[in-house]
């Protein structure tokens, strides 16, 4: 009879393993829905506005350098050649690019959702100003091709790099040294920085040091991420929003003394000097080479607006515990079978396991229509109620069925506590801690319940194992 007990335990383990098939099918469905959600986000970004990056502003002063160049040539004459000199008039067009001494970004970000069918994408809308000053040197640092070259300065313009100008929610305006000016499409910086705006400025004749203040009023929309490139001598960013779930990213984190995150939103400030970043040098090198950096070379700082309750990531995370739920249910069944000498058919094991698997499918389908917490409660209540009713008959006692249902309720409650944790670092620690405690507690309970059981004597009492 010991062999019979072994084979029944083996059959139980095989049934539990077979239930990985429907669980895997449900996980595949979650993956498909997650991929569809990502596709919808890409589609909305393509037709609305994607992640935004702000770099600048920068002051650009075109110039023409006129100079004379003496060249030597071989001139043929009767009987041979001779060296002669020629003086040529040369013209070279170039531009002087000046980065601001100070750039202060002061923005507020309102959030909302764009929906497509069952799927939604978080968007943000910025409103605020960029202000600061430019310091014009008395002697601009330009590379002359001849010491006596004549420099003719062209019409200057201010350029602002915006990664996706479709997100402009209103016409931006520029206050330049007290004058109100408008912007035009394109940065006019060439292929290195093509996306953005530029504004034609009054003529500037370098040669006398001066300070020019500026202010840009800007409204901008985007999705997912907002980035700032610190190009100025001193870059300050002050950002606030009603969204309570920011993820600060980039090479520089906000000042912890001014950072505030609560249920009403967040506020954060950054301050970066040009001595602490390679962004200005990288930006100017890219303009000089005319080559666009595919990875967005300049260092940046910023924030990502994240949605902590992502139903598909939560469903996928819950499915990681599906086999544990099935295994614990089968283990409890087997203990009841051994301790109470109950006859439990493999088909009954299978039905209980399928009920556990269907819970995750119910959770996925309901959470697409109602809040995740409510969907979890309804799915868990349906699963626990069905199994409690069924097991009251299978285990031969309503008290046993209710007890088993209470055990399931505790498991579902523990799982939900893990799923809704918002801090990922804390979550990972909680998973390890709570999972370890739960498994230890269940093992301890099984050992206590079977501590006086004579396993060799089981099966010799009528063979009811």
Question: What is the gist of this entry?
Answer:
The protein has helices at 2-18, 20-47, 279-289, 311-319, 322-340, 346-367, 372-394, 398-419, 424-449, and strands spanning 52-77, 80-98, 102-116, 119-136, 150-153, 157-162, 173-176, 179-182, 184-185, 196-200, 210-223, 225-229, 234-241, 246-250, 260-262, 265-273, 301-305.
Note down, in words, how this protein is organized.
The protein is α+β, with helices and mostly antiparallel strands and 465 residues long. The chain has 2 domains: 2-39 and 311-457, no CATH class; 53-62 and 89-305. It has 9 helices and 17 strands. It has helices spanning 2-18, 20-47, 279-289, 311-319, 322-340, 346-367, 372-394, 398-419, 424-449, and strands at residues 52-77, 80-98, 102-116, 119-136, 150-153, 157-162, 173-176, 179-182, 184-185, 196-200, 210-223, 225-229, 234-241, 246-250, 260-262, 265-273, 301-305. Strands 1, 2, 5, 6, 9, 10, 12, 14 and 17 form a 9-stranded mixed sheet that branches. An 8-stranded mixed sheet has the order 8-7-11-4-3-13-16-15, covered by helices on one side. Strand 7 (173-176) and strand 8 (179-182) form a beta hairpin. Helix 1 (2-18) packs antiparallel against helix 5, helix 2 packs parallel to helix 6 and helix 5 (322-340) runs antiparallel to helix 6 (346-367). The chain is elongated, with a radius of gyration of 35 Å. Residues 422-429 and 461-465 have low confidence and may be disordered.
């Amino acid at each position: 009879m010991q062999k019979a007990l072994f084979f029944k335990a083996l059959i139980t383990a095989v049934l539990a393993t077979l239930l990985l098939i429907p669980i895997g099918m449900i996980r595949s469905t979650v993956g498909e829905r997650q991929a569809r959600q990502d596709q919808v986000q890409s589609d909305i970004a393509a037709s609305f506005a994607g992640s935004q990056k702000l770099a600048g502003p920068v002051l650009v002063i075109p110039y023409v350098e006129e100079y004379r160049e003496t060249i030597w040539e071989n001139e043929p004459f009767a009987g041979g050649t001779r060296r002669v000199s020629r003086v040529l008039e040369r013209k070279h067009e170039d531009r002087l690019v000046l980065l601001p001494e100070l750039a202060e970004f002061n923005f507020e970000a309102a959030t909302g959702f764009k929906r497509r069918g069952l799927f939604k994408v978080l968007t943000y809308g910025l409103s605020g100003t960029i202000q600061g000053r430019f310091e014009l040197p008395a002697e601009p640092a330009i590379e002359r091709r001849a010491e006596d070259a004549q420099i003719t300065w062209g019409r200057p313009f201010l350029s602002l790099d915006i990664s996706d100008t479709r997100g402009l929610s209103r016409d931006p305006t520029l206050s330049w040294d007290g004058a109100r000016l408008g912007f035009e499409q394109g940065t006019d910086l060439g292929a290195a920085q093509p996306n953005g705006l530029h504004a034609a400025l009054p003529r500037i004749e370098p040669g006398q040091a001066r300070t020019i203040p500026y202010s840009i009023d800007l409204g901008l929309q985007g999705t997912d991420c907002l980035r700032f490139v610190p190009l100025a001598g001193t870059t300050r960013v002050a950002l606030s929003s009603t969204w309570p779930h920011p993820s600060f990213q980039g090479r520089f984190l906000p000042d912890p003394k001014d950072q505030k995150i609560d249920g009403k939103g967040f506020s954060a400030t950054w301050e970066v000097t040009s001595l602490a970043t390679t962004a200005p040098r990288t930006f100017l090198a890219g303009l000089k080479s005319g080559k666009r950096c595919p990875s967005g070379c300049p260092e940046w700082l910023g924030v990502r607006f994240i949605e902590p309750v992502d139903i598909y990531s939560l469903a996928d995370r819950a499915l990681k515990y599906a086999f544990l739920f099935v295994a614990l249910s089968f283990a409890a069944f087997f203990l009841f079978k051994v301790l109470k000498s109950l006859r439990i058919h493999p088909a009954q094991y299978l039905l209980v396991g399928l009920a556990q698997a269907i819970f995750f499918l119910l959770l996925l389908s309901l959470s697409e229509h109602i809040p995740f917490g409510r969907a979890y409660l309804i799915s868990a209540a349906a699963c626990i109620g069905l199994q409690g009713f069924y097991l009251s008959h299978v285990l031969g006692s309503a008290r046993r069925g209710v007890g088993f249902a209470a055990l399931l309720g505790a498991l579902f409650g523990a799982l939900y506590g893990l799923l809704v944790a918002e801090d990922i670092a804390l979550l990972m620690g909680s998973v390890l801690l709570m999972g370890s405690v739960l498994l230890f507690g269940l093992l301890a309970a099984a050992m206590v319940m079977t501590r006086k059981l004579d396993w060799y004597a089981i099966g010799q009492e009528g063979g009811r194992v």
